[in-house]
Amino acid sequence: NAGVTQTPKFQVLKTGQSMTLQCAQDMNHEYMSWYRQDPGMGLRLIHYSVGAGITDQGEVPNGYNVSRSTTEDFPLRLLSAAPSQTSVYFCASSYSVAGDGYTFGSGTRLTVV
Amino acid sequence: ELKVEQNPLFLSMQEGKNYTIYCNYSTTSDRLYWYRQDPGKSLESLFVLLSNGAVKQEGRLMASLDTKARLSTLHITAAVHDLSATYFCAVDIPSGGGADGLTFGKGTHLIIQP
Q1: What digits encode the pLDDT tens for the residues A3-15?
Q2: Are residues B8 and B21 in contact, defined by beta-carbon separation less than 8 angstroms?
Q3: pLDDT in tens, A33-49
């Protein structure tokens, strides 16, 4: 049971490049979400999904796109990377009532130069 | 808009001492979570509190939730160096029978010195 798997673990992008951060879970969780963590800011919600085919915006969605075609996968796309998107990104998943809490992936450390 | 405030944001304490971290939130919710994060690592779930008056304990850590006061506390008893980490509280708002994501406090950076 792998839990929540994020790839890559590290990435350096040039301004304007695009990329996709991958997130996969094998726990059959309905809910998945993306957060970014910046020093002194805690974690902030980017996008979330309550099930396959359903996504919605969180607190800081600008510059990011998501889709949820399967229960297992919830990729985060940066269409045109900016230095302000330099951050550590975490994916999390949970059951519908979150009684067991949210399980987090190991994170992706992204640097945009 | 849900806001979550933790205090203190930084805490340096000696081994063997007791201390409490406070987490206040602005909107009614009965779902609060505590996480631990070590430097360069992911978030480790410590406690899930899902009702008013909930109290959970694990080792030297005890968490409680008062939904009427919109307050949760994380109490550390007889601190040891291994508890040095950053601690986050987070709240979610039930929606449509499910959960839509967490709002986090900014974290409490805890250093425990011998």
Answers
A1: 999 999 999 999 9
A2: yes
A3: 999 999 888 899 999 99
Question: Which chain A residue has the Cα nearest residue B51?
Answer: A99
Q: How far apart are CA B13 and CA B97, in angstroms?
A: 41
* Residues recorded for chain A: 113
Best probe of the A interface among B25, B46, B100, B103, by most A CBs < 10 A, is B100
Q: How far apart are the first and last CA of chain A?
A: 36
Full DSSP string of B78-112 = S--GGG-EEEEEEE--EETTEE---EE---EEEEE
CB burial of residue B53 (10 Å; 0-12, 13-18, 19+): exposed
Unique residue bearing structure tokens 């039930």 = B94
In B16-60 the beta strands, taken as DSSP E runs, fall at 19-25, 32-37, 43-49, 55-58
Q: How far is CA B90 from the centre of its chain?
A: 7
- Rounded Cα distance between B70 and B68, Å, is 5
Q: Is the pLDDT of residue A96 over 70?
A: no
Q: Does B88 touch chain A (CB under 8 A)?
A: yes
For chain A, percent helix, then strand, then coil, each to nearest 5? 5, 50, 45
